Amino acid sequence: MKKHVGKMLLGAIAGFIVAYGVMHLKFDVNMPAMGFEFTIIFMIITMILISFSLIGYMKVKGDAKKQLVGDAQDELETLQYKRSSDTMIASNTAIYFSTLMLAIVSLTDVPNIFIFISLGLVLVSIVLNTIYANLGKSLQPERNWPSVNDKDYAKKILAISDEGERHVILQGLYGAFASLNGLLLLAIFILIGYSAVSGVSQLLAIFIIVFILIITNTQYMLTIRNK
Amino acid sequence: MKTRLKELRARDGLNQTELAKLAKVSRQTISLIEREELIPSLLIAVRIAKIFNESIGDIFFFEEDE
Fold first, then answer.
1. Which SMART domains is this protein grouped with (chain B) (predicted)?
2. Are residues A21 and A35 in the same domain?
C-alpha cells in the first residue's frame, strides 16, 4: 500500500513539475498543424506492431505442434508463453495507437483517405486481438477455455487459473493498477499545464480522468472492504 | 520456505510440464514453487507428495530462522 501511495505521489509531483515547467517555458506545440506528421508516425508504428504480432502468432501456432521431451519441452513451453505474451502486448498497443491515429485524423486537417486507413487499422487490431486471445487453446487444448465473446470472460479466465497463475496475474494487475493511478494523476497535471499555456481548455479530459480514478479506486477498495 | 522439488524431479526423471500434468496444475505453478516464489496450498502439496511418494515435510520445509 505504501508503494502504491508513493507511486501516486510521485505521479502528482512529476506532473506538477512538468506542468510548472511547461507554463514557464511558454512551450507551444501546434498539435493541429502537426496532424499529418503524427498520423504517418502512428500509422507506421501500428503497422509494425501488427506485423510483429502476426509473426509472433504464427511462431506460437507453428511451435505448438512440436513434440519435445525432457528439459527441451519445458524450454519450449517457457518460450511459447513469452511469445504469446509479446504478441498480446503488440496487438494491444496496436489498438491504442490506431485509435490515437483515428482521433488525430478526425480532429485535424488530414486527407480523408486517412480516416479509412485508421478505421481499418483499428478494426484489424481488434480482430487480431480477439484471435490472439484464443492462443491459450493452441498451447493448452486440454483446458476448458471460455469463449472470448463470453460476458464473464475475465471471471472465467480467473476461475480456470490455478494458484500459481493467479499469483502472477495478481502481481501484474496490482503493479499495473498502481502505475495507472500515478500516470493518470501525472496526465491531469500535464493537461492543466497545457490548458494554461495554450489557452485551449482540457477540462473535459480532466473531468473524465478524475471520474475514472474515482470509479476504479472505489471499485478496488469496495472489493477489498466487502470480502 | 525451502523445497526439494527440483531434486526430486531429477531423481524421477520428470520435467516441469510432466509434473504439472500429474499434479493437475500449470507448469508456471511448478516453476514458481521450485523457485521458492510461491508457497503451495495444502492440496497441491499433498498431490506432489503422493507423486514422489514422500511426506510433505520431506519436500517442503522451513529453515531454522523462518
1. HTH_XRE
2. no
Express each pLDDT in A126-162 by its tens digit. 999 999 988 888 888 888 888 888 888 888 888 899 9
- Yes or no, beta carbons of A168 and B28 under 8 Å apart: yes
Domain housing A169:
1-27+151-227
- Quote the cell numbers at residue A161: 487459473
The DSSP output letter for A29 is: -
The total number of structural domains in chain A stands at: 2
- Burial (CB < 10 A; 0-12, 13-18, 19+), residue A24, is exposed
Domains of chain B: 2-53 (1.10.260.40)
Spatial distance between the Cα atoms of A116 and A152, rounded to a whole number of angstroms: 32
CA closest to B25 among chain A residues: A162
- Cα(A136)–Cα(A57) distance, integer angstroms: 11
Q: Tell me: do A167 and A215 sit in the same domain.
A: yes
